[in-house]
Specification:
five-stranded mixed beta sheet, single chain, 6 helices, 2 domains, 15 strands, Tumour Suppressor Smad4
Length: about 240
Protein backbone atom coordinates (compact mmCIF):
# COMPACT_ATOMS: atom_id res chain seq x y z
CA UNK A 1 0.00 0.00 0.00
CA UNK A 2 1.06 3.56 -0.73
CA UNK A 3 0.23 6.06 2.02
CA UNK A 4 -0.35 9.66 0.88
CA UNK A 5 2.03 12.05 2.63
CA UNK A 6 -0.58 14.82 2.41
CA UNK A 7 -3.82 13.28 3.75
CA UNK A 8 -2.47 9.92 5.05
CA UNK A 9 -4.93 7.94 2.89
CA UNK A 10 -3.91 4.38 1.92
CA UNK A 11 -3.81 3.73 -1.82
CA UNK A 12 -3.02 0.70 -3.95
CA UNK A 13 0.60 -0.07 -4.83
CA UNK A 14 0.10 0.76 -8.52
CA UNK A 15 -1.59 4.14 -7.87
CA UNK A 16 0.24 7.29 -9.00
CA UNK A 17 -2.11 9.87 -7.44
CA UNK A 18 -4.01 9.85 -4.14
CA UNK A 19 -7.67 8.92 -4.62
CA UNK A 20 -8.64 11.36 -1.82
CA UNK A 21 -6.63 14.55 -2.45
CA UNK A 22 -5.07 13.75 -5.86
CA UNK A 23 -1.60 14.35 -4.44
CA UNK A 24 1.27 12.77 -6.40
CA UNK A 25 2.40 9.54 -4.76
CA UNK A 26 6.14 8.96 -4.72
CA UNK A 27 7.16 5.45 -5.86
CA UNK A 28 7.92 3.10 -2.99
CA UNK A 29 11.58 2.31 -2.46
CA UNK A 30 12.77 -1.12 -3.52
CA UNK A 31 14.96 -3.46 -1.54
CA UNK A 32 17.18 -6.28 -2.71
CA UNK A 33 16.74 -9.81 -1.33
CA UNK A 34 19.38 -9.03 1.30
CA UNK A 35 17.47 -5.96 2.51
CA UNK A 36 19.57 -3.20 0.90
CA UNK A 37 17.64 -0.12 -0.26
CA UNK A 38 17.79 0.23 -4.05
CA UNK A 39 16.92 3.04 -6.45
CA UNK A 40 14.11 2.25 -8.88
CA UNK A 41 16.40 2.54 -11.89
CA UNK A 42 19.04 0.12 -10.55
CA UNK A 43 19.06 -3.29 -12.17
CA UNK A 44 21.22 -4.89 -9.46
CA UNK A 45 22.25 -4.14 -5.90
CA UNK A 46 25.71 -2.53 -5.75
CA UNK A 47 26.12 -3.59 -2.11
CA UNK A 48 25.60 -7.26 -2.85
CA UNK A 49 27.78 -7.05 -5.97
CA UNK A 50 30.74 -5.77 -3.99
CA UNK A 51 32.06 -8.75 -2.08
CA UNK A 52 34.28 -6.65 0.21
CA UNK A 53 31.20 -5.11 1.83
CA UNK A 54 28.91 -2.12 1.32
CA UNK A 55 30.34 0.62 -0.88
CA UNK A 56 29.05 4.22 -1.11
CA UNK A 57 26.66 4.66 -4.01
CA UNK A 58 28.49 7.84 -5.12
CA UNK A 59 31.67 5.79 -5.57
CA UNK A 60 29.94 3.07 -7.58
CA UNK A 61 28.13 5.44 -9.92
CA UNK A 62 30.75 8.18 -10.30
CA UNK A 63 30.73 10.11 -13.52
CA UNK A 64 33.37 8.80 -15.98
CA UNK A 65 35.18 12.18 -15.88
CA UNK A 66 35.76 11.75 -12.12
CA UNK A 67 37.56 8.39 -12.40
CA UNK A 68 40.97 8.13 -10.80
CA UNK A 69 43.50 8.22 -13.63
CA UNK A 70 45.95 6.19 -11.56
CA UNK A 71 43.68 3.13 -12.05
CA UNK A 72 43.68 3.41 -15.83
CA UNK A 73 46.02 0.96 -17.49
CA UNK A 74 48.34 2.70 -19.96
CA UNK A 75 50.78 1.46 -22.53
CA UNK A 76 54.51 1.97 -21.78
CA UNK A 77 54.76 4.85 -24.29
CA UNK A 78 51.72 6.61 -22.80
CA UNK A 79 53.16 6.19 -19.30
CA UNK A 80 56.45 7.85 -20.36
CA UNK A 81 54.59 10.76 -21.97
CA UNK A 82 52.48 11.26 -18.84
CA UNK A 83 55.58 11.19 -16.61
CA UNK A 84 57.29 13.77 -18.82
CA UNK A 85 54.30 16.12 -18.50
CA UNK A 86 54.41 16.13 -14.68
CA UNK A 87 58.18 15.91 -14.20
CA UNK A 88 59.70 18.73 -12.08
CA UNK A 89 61.98 19.79 -14.91
CA UNK A 90 59.02 20.38 -17.21
CA UNK A 91 57.26 22.49 -14.57
CA UNK A 92 60.25 24.72 -13.82
CA UNK A 93 59.85 28.20 -15.38
CA UNK A 94 62.09 28.82 -18.31
CA UNK A 95 64.79 31.38 -17.61
CA UNK A 96 64.50 34.51 -19.74
CA UNK A 97 66.94 34.94 -22.53
CA UNK A 98 69.80 37.46 -22.06
CA UNK A 99 68.23 39.71 -24.69
CA UNK A 100 64.95 39.96 -22.72
CA UNK A 101 66.81 40.68 -19.49
CA UNK A 102 68.73 43.50 -21.15
CA UNK A 103 65.52 44.99 -22.55
CA UNK A 104 63.89 44.86 -19.10
CA UNK A 105 66.92 46.55 -17.53
CA UNK A 106 66.91 49.24 -20.20
CA UNK A 107 63.22 49.95 -19.62
CA UNK A 108 63.75 50.13 -15.86
CA UNK A 109 66.63 52.55 -16.33
CA UNK A 110 64.59 54.73 -18.69
CA UNK A 111 61.72 54.78 -16.19
CA UNK A 112 64.08 55.78 -13.39
CA UNK A 113 65.31 58.73 -15.43
CA UNK A 114 61.74 59.83 -16.15
CA UNK A 115 60.87 60.09 -12.44
CA UNK A 116 61.73 63.71 -11.81
CA UNK A 117 63.29 64.73 -8.53
CA UNK A 118 65.89 66.96 -10.15
CA UNK A 119 66.99 69.46 -7.53
CA UNK A 120 69.94 71.27 -9.08
CA UNK A 121 72.61 72.90 -7.01
CA UNK A 122 73.03 76.54 -8.09
CA UNK A 123 76.18 76.84 -10.14
CA UNK A 124 76.86 73.09 -10.01
CA UNK A 125 76.79 70.31 -12.59
CA UNK A 126 73.58 68.35 -13.14
CA UNK A 127 73.27 65.10 -11.20
CA UNK A 128 72.39 63.13 -14.34
CA UNK A 129 74.49 63.70 -17.44
CA UNK A 130 71.73 62.17 -19.60
CA UNK A 131 69.08 64.67 -18.43
CA UNK A 132 67.29 66.74 -21.11
CA UNK A 133 68.89 69.98 -22.20
CA UNK A 134 65.99 72.00 -20.77
CA UNK A 135 66.82 70.60 -17.32
CA UNK A 136 70.57 71.05 -17.62
CA UNK A 137 70.06 74.74 -18.35
CA UNK A 138 68.55 75.15 -14.87
CA UNK A 139 71.81 74.25 -13.12
CA UNK A 140 72.96 77.89 -12.96
CA UNK A 141 69.51 79.38 -12.22
CA UNK A 142 68.76 80.48 -8.68
CA UNK A 143 65.86 78.84 -6.84
CA UNK A 144 63.35 81.57 -6.01
CA UNK A 145 60.15 79.66 -5.23
CA UNK A 146 58.45 76.31 -4.68
CA UNK A 147 55.36 74.65 -6.15
CA UNK A 148 53.69 71.98 -3.97
CA UNK A 149 50.79 69.70 -4.97
CA UNK A 150 48.87 66.91 -3.24
CA UNK A 151 46.70 66.06 -6.25
CA UNK A 152 48.49 62.91 -7.40
CA UNK A 153 50.40 61.75 -4.33
CA UNK A 154 49.05 61.88 -0.76
CA UNK A 155 52.53 62.62 0.57
CA UNK A 156 52.81 65.57 -1.83
CA UNK A 157 55.08 66.63 -4.68
CA UNK A 158 57.47 69.58 -4.56
CA UNK A 159 59.12 71.34 -7.51
CA UNK A 160 61.53 74.27 -7.53
CA UNK A 161 60.72 77.51 -9.31
CA UNK A 162 63.85 79.18 -10.70
CA UNK A 163 64.82 82.51 -12.15
CA UNK A 164 63.51 83.09 -15.67
CA UNK A 165 60.69 81.07 -17.20
CA UNK A 166 59.51 77.75 -15.70
CA UNK A 167 57.30 75.70 -18.02
CA UNK A 168 54.56 73.53 -16.49
CA UNK A 169 53.06 70.61 -18.43
CA UNK A 170 52.94 66.89 -19.12
CA UNK A 171 56.04 66.76 -21.35
CA UNK A 172 59.02 65.73 -19.22
CA UNK A 173 61.53 66.59 -21.93
CA UNK A 174 60.53 70.23 -22.42
CA UNK A 175 58.96 71.25 -19.10
CA UNK A 176 60.78 72.31 -15.95
CA UNK A 177 57.81 71.15 -13.85
CA UNK A 178 56.22 68.00 -15.34
CA UNK A 179 53.19 65.97 -14.21
CA UNK A 180 52.94 63.16 -16.81
CA UNK A 181 50.12 61.38 -14.94
CA UNK A 182 47.66 64.27 -15.44
CA UNK A 183 45.66 63.36 -18.59
CA UNK A 184 44.03 66.81 -18.83
CA UNK A 185 47.32 68.68 -18.71
CA UNK A 186 48.66 69.92 -22.04
CA UNK A 187 52.21 69.02 -23.08
CA UNK A 188 53.21 72.61 -22.27
CA UNK A 189 50.30 74.04 -20.28
CA UNK A 190 51.44 77.08 -18.29
CA UNK A 191 54.47 79.01 -17.11
CA UNK A 192 55.71 80.80 -14.01
CA UNK A 193 58.32 83.45 -14.70
CA UNK A 194 60.52 85.52 -12.40
CA UNK A 195 62.65 88.52 -13.27
CA UNK A 196 61.88 91.29 -10.82
CA UNK A 197 58.53 89.84 -9.82
CA UNK A 198 56.57 86.61 -10.20
CA UNK A 199 54.00 86.20 -12.96
CA UNK A 200 51.95 83.21 -14.15
CA UNK A 201 50.48 82.71 -17.60
CA UNK A 202 48.69 80.17 -19.78
CA UNK A 203 50.34 78.69 -22.90
CA UNK A 204 47.05 78.53 -24.86
CA UNK A 205 46.26 75.15 -23.27
CA UNK A 206 43.01 73.23 -23.73
CA UNK A 207 42.13 72.98 -20.02
CA UNK A 208 43.42 76.47 -19.15
CA UNK A 209 45.09 77.88 -16.05
CA UNK A 210 43.38 79.32 -12.96
CA UNK A 211 44.91 81.72 -10.43
CA UNK A 212 43.06 81.67 -7.09
CA UNK A 213 39.95 80.34 -8.87
CA UNK A 214 39.99 82.93 -11.68
CA UNK A 215 40.82 81.72 -15.21
CA UNK A 216 43.74 83.42 -16.97
CA UNK A 217 42.25 84.29 -20.35
CA UNK A 218 45.23 86.05 -21.93
CA UNK A 219 48.55 87.61 -20.99
CA UNK A 220 50.22 87.16 -17.60
CA UNK A 221 48.98 87.75 -14.06
CA UNK A 222 50.96 88.85 -11.00
CA UNK A 223 51.61 85.83 -8.76
CA UNK A 224 51.27 86.63 -5.03
CA UNK A 225 52.82 84.50 -2.34
CA UNK A 226 50.75 81.44 -1.22
CA UNK A 227 48.59 81.58 -4.35
CA UNK A 228 46.57 78.58 -5.52
CA UNK A 229 47.12 77.61 -9.16
CA UNK A 230 45.20 75.04 -11.23
CA UNK A 231 46.76 73.55 -14.35
CA UNK A 232 44.74 70.74 -15.98
CA UNK A 233 43.50 68.66 -13.03
CA UNK A 234 46.50 69.50 -10.84
CA UNK A 235 46.18 72.05 -8.02
CA UNK A 236 49.32 73.81 -6.80
CA UNK A 237 50.30 76.01 -3.87
CA UNK A 238 52.97 78.58 -4.71
CA UNK A 239 55.45 79.65 -2.04
CA UNK A 240 57.85 82.53 -2.68
CA UNK A 241 61.37 82.00 -1.35
CA UNK A 242 63.20 85.12 -2.52
CA UNK A 243 62.15 88.15 -4.51
CA UNK A 244 65.66 88.89 -5.77
CA UNK A 245 67.27 92.22 -6.52
Amino acid sequence: MKTCTNCKTDNSDDAHFCMQCENYLRPAARKCPNGHTMDLVWTECPYCKNQSGPQPVAEVFRHPTELDESRIERSPNEAKDQAAKVSPSSQAPASPSPGLEQDAQARAEARRKRLKTEYWQPGGAPADADAPASQKSGAARKIVGVLASYTWKPEGQVFFVREGRNLIGRDEENCDIAIPQDPTLSSVNSHISFRRSFVVGDMVSLSGTDLNGVPIEEGNRALPNYSTIRTGSTVWTFVMLERGN
